[in-house]
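Review form for a predicted model. The reviewer records the input and the model, then writes brief findings.
Reviewer: anonymous (R2)
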Amino acid sequence: MSKIVLCETKPAKTAYTIHKINRSFQSYEELCWLLEHYLIFFLSEGLDRPLRNYLKEYLNLEIKSEDAVQQVKEIINFQNYFTSDEKIQFQQKIRTTYLYSAAKKQKLLADMYLKHHLYLMALTSYQKLEMVSGKLNPNEQMQVWYHMGLCQSRMFCFEEAKESFRKALMLKPEKQIQEAYFMISYLSGDEESFIEDGKTVSFDEEHCKTIYENLKQCEKEIFEKEQFDKLAKIDYHRKKADKSMTRRLVKTTLGKWKDEYKAEII
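Model under review:
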């Protein structure tokens, strides 16, 4: 989308909060922005009665359809927020999403929650995949286990997170999953438990010790990164580690995760 705003509407006196995505809007333009960034949510959940009442009363936008797809189309055609080309792109995206299996749609919904740091909603959505029709391919299933591990990590469910990462590694031993797994093991235990966790995913003891010592050495480097699962610059094969490094990473990272999770559930 080009982000060209062709219309300018008067904002409502009162904002409306969509609690499931933890976002508010007060104008038609802001609602269209939410449609762009949270499309799978609106296609999956539709517009409930309180939201539709708000749109009618405050934005003069009356949604007549009960179908989620048609509701989205009514919104994008209400004013000229989108260019003609953007509307065509939007329609194509809606059509493509509509053809996905129920499992694929559920995964996309969970992925969207995770992308926006709504870890509880994301984890719940991933867990619901077992109850929807359609199957995921092995790569998609690997992503589900990996993403569940990320959510569980942020919720301080470290043993559950490690188990999810292990399941993902059984399907495909990707480097980013290994790194996330070892990071959680490092944050939640000592060197002995770290080595045992490494052996569980087929790393030998010496290799585990090298990884552990280099994580200690690179704590400052890791702390400066926004995402704990992006450790690509760490050289697992360095031979020496600075034993004077403190475990600042543990306190600061866990504190950040706690604040993020509290912001979602409070």
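Findings: The chain has two domains: 16-98, 102-265.
Further findings: The mean pLDDT is 84.
Recommendation: see findings above.
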